[in-house]
Records
---
Amino acid sequence: RKEVEQDPGPFNVPEGATVAFNCTYSNSASQSFFWYRQDCRKEPKLLMSVYSSGNEDGRFTAQLNRASQYISLLIRDSKLSDSATYLCVALTDSWGKFQFGAGTQVVVTP
Amino acid sequence: DAGVTQSPTHLIKTRGQHVTLRCSPISGHKSVSWYQQVLGQGPQFIFQYYEKEERGRGNFPDRFSARQFPNYSSELNVNALLLGDSALYLCASSLLQFSYEQYFGPGTRLTVT
């Protein structure tokens, strides 16, 4: 079983709509979590960290559920520019080893 | 400020050859991590270096090695290349060893024929 699992999608979303997707992690000792965004054939870029209490950054909201071992990302008022692959990351070791999921593809359509 | 830089951008090698990939972290960042990303998958952790010492290693064979220089730049070396080594190799830098935010370079796309 992979340490971090994501629904690969694609999630096809009309412009202006809301989309949400989850990521599950298997290591209960995971300490920190992040969402990265990756455009086609580009490097991953940090979108946001995920805090225990949940956090929001503009149109993006991240939640952490430690009891069920998943994190979620919600995108409101989707823009065409939100089309990308969203990578879930769990930090499983104190020295900074990132475990990436395979990514969830989001396609926002006009 | 300059971000993480990597060279070369693209590389084509044949099986059995050796390759060296280079990374310069963001100025002031002391930690460099290397990842391999195969098409359709998330990045897989290879190494982390901090203050010129290896601090972590992923599940990769001994054909993969790396080092970090006094200026915090880093090299990833892969010997005896296999077709399966074809991937995007990403370098990420962070301020400290335990800094949780990593910033990625554009990657080196390696094709092994």
---
Amino acid sequence: GAGVSQSPSNKVTEKGKDVELRCDPISGHTALYWYRQSLGQGLEFLIYFQGNSAPDKSGLPSDRFSAERTGGSVSTLTIQRTQQEDSAVYLCASSFRQGARTEAFFGQGTRLTVV
Amino acid sequence: DAKTTQPNSMESNEEEPVHLPCNHSTISGTDYIHWYRQLPSQGPEYVIHGLTSNVNNRMASLAIAEDRKSSTLILHRATLRDAAVYYCILDRPGTYKYIFGTGTRLKVLA
């Protein structure tokens, strides 16, 4: 499809396990964002990638969280030693960054449940 | 980070206009005002954005106050499908990260 694709759509994991969440952005988009949305809350910024620049990791809540973007395309968000408070919907977005016109396209999200 | 303030919730009757307010008193001269909405169980989707002048597109209109410290998203005829959480966000060139608040949950009554 032409939109942002995230996988898996749902993930249930045991506390203490590591998880990987994948994001396939829209082809040609230079910018990629990860957000987290806890139940009934707004979106919390996690990390931003733009081209070959160093990512803005200022929103990552702890060193258990990391993300990479390979070849300027697909991104993986990794959560190590998951905790129950990590349960949330993880949303990925991409945009073609051109000045300040940054219409972002979001995926459907990955719902992570840590039991 | 520039912040926005929105009412937690609003209600509208179907086929009536809806005016969703947003305050952004700390806006700077180069910040763009963006609106997104999030339908139930979906990721946010872009609605509209502007800088100084009012903007119209097929989804909505954006009215920006002369001092730019507030703006209003206008849905001209609300439908049941417009029930969503609406987020007003400031896009500051050079910072790249959208800061989402809690938004306004719009309920549309049939």
